[in-house]
Amino acid sequence: MEQHDESPIVEQQEDFHIKINQVFEEVGKVVVGQKNLLNRLLIGLFTQGHVLLEGVPGLAKTLTINTLSDVLDLDFQRIQFTPDLLPADLIGTMIYNQQKSVFEVKKGPIFSNIILADEINRSPAKVQAALLESMQEKQVTIGQETFKLDRPFLVLATQNPVDQEGTYPLPEAQVDRFMMKVFVDYPTKEEEREVMRRMSNLSFDVKVDTILHKEDIFKIRDHINQVNVSQSIENYIVDLIFATRYPKEVGLKEASRYIQFGASPRATINLNLAAKAMAYMDGRDYVLPEDIKDVAPDILNHRIMLNYEAEADEINTLDIIDQILKQVPVSK
Hints:
about 325 residues; 5-stranded parallel beta sheet; Rossmann fold; alpha/beta
């Protein structure tokens, strides 16, 4: 394994590394478990990547995000997506001021730092498109005026995997705009017991402290941008992505039967960014293969499309990703 000397970035990040650990501790005062979810939310925030969350109701997704926004001193808006929601309900609209006899802009809830788009697949395509355009362009046009969105800007969209009746599934091209798709799982028995104890106490009301501010997040982004990715790691990332497109070339003949099409170049970019953020939060200024393997399932699971044969054989994308990670060697 390559040896790396201490560099100025490691010294600069020590204070932030301590504070990032404090963020986990502070959120943990309110939320039991969900450390993987919190880790992925911070990766998205630090690398300007949006996150798609999937899990059954009641797993503290909203509570985690709301608490995180308090710990980071960021504005938070939760938007419940419904079939009758309109784009104007999201981005805002022009309203007529009778006293001044002019139309004025009324900004929508999209003008915030952290947006929770709850059950995004419940709203029609026009509303989904308005949200995704805001995610991509970081700006909104209302009437004849264009407004820049607040920075940092992070969209966390949730999907309920159980009840699909009356939903409008996101097209593959739009899902690809999310940096990660994170599955939120049930808590362990110990965690569930602690949840029960906390939430059964009607006087439970914990106030969290602010650990990081907007300026800190921008500085952390600059530090992450300087994290070193060696050529061998870059080759490994590209090899993994190409394995999703041409599985036969890496000896995955069985997997090739199930893959309809592989990951896009966005996966390559986001895998690099997420791995750099993982290394930074672990106190390193260089990326290891373990960082790539850690984030790969969340980066790839919504970008590999499987065919009907995979569904019939009960094969899912995580099974395919696991095979690829085991088969593709780390480049020398």
